[in-house]
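Bumping with the actual sequence this time:
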Amino acid sequence: MQPACGGQPFVKNSIRHRVNAIHKSTQSHLRDSALKIHHSTSTRKNAKPIVLHLGEDIKYNHDYHESIFTERFTVVANEEPDRASFIAAFNSLKYGDFSAIFRPHFQSGGEIGQWDDELIPLLPPSIRILASAGAGFNWADVDALGRRGIWYANGAGASDEAVSDTALFMILFVFRNFWRSQRAARTGDSEKFTAMHRLVGSISRNPRGHVLGIVGLGNIGKTLAYKARTALGMEIHYYYVVRSSKQVEEERGLRGDEGRSEVGEYLAGPGRQRECLG
């Protein structure tokens, strides 16, 4: 007995259609999933690295910051005013997987305190560098950063001219007794000013030929040594942890003072500062 309406072929065709439909649906689903995964991966690859900004906004190089820096990086500003809230923000992953920390001013951005063994372990694995203004690095434990494979970059060299100019001013201020003249001028008393004007020349000294001792000979010390020798004709003696090469000493007219390796103790002794100045 034959199935009505050719039942057997109908069943086979129906099953075949369903299998094809399921196959097409599965292919479509897999294709859509693959596209989503590709899009997600592509988005992650093309996403700009995140930079966590500490402290006040930048004050200089606005064109570079707006046209280049922010084009290459997503800059996220820290809004936490103290260490406790900053740590809480880290624990909640508020700033995401940032790649760098940027602190453009050494006067601000330090509200969170020292970067030490309490704070550094909270940094995400994505971070590669911590950059801060200022010539020093006393606010960050560079050894702890190094153990995490994080570079530390400071602003060494940025303040060489300003600080060495200030030191040069202070040298002249002492030798030429400018402070006495300034104090007399501030009194507003013409007689006192005239008296000091007549006196100051006889109690002042010319720095030329005198010895300038510099404790530490980093970038600022070297810049000051050059200015004091070139402009004021002073003889430069210095003490540094690592003595400069003979070539550098000869080029800059420097004399390393090996006889005072305990210079810190020497200067800390009673009356030693006056002896050095004398």
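The tokens above came from a reply further down the thread. The chain has two domains: 50-153, 160-277.
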